[in-house]
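Subject: Glycosidase

B.,
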Amino acid sequence: MTDLTTVELLWLEKRIENRIRFGRAVAERIIDRRRRILSFAPGTIFAFVRWASNDFGTVMSRVDILRAATPGQRYSTVPWVTPGGDILLRLTGWPKVERVLQLIDAVEALDIHPADVAFDYWHHVHNRLSVNETPRPYTRGRHQAWLRRRRIAP
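Prediction pasted inline below.
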């Protein structure tokens, strides 16, 4: 048995799109031209975006920012993710998903990989977007403080 967390990605034109927005996969397996499986090491942070539509328009938009399951630690199950992960952020509805994607773009504009962002930032984003407030942007200063805290934390 492997300790890796796997995510099945699917793309059916104009119907379903499951994709990774960011994350550092350690392995990729292509099943066919529409499906592939990415594997993440324990503790790795990644964003999983899901979208589905039918003949009448979009029926589901969702973003999950997860920390890959670590052996011996608890985790939540998420569709398409095996075995699951620690949910740092989970939002549904296109306006909220779009806002999270914009925040990810803003983090990347700082030349910071979104997977390296402080875990509590994603919780902060979730709490603010859930009540339709604008979250504070992630800054280089906040990132430096996170890196220092992570260095001394047990």
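The chain has three helices and eight strands.

T.
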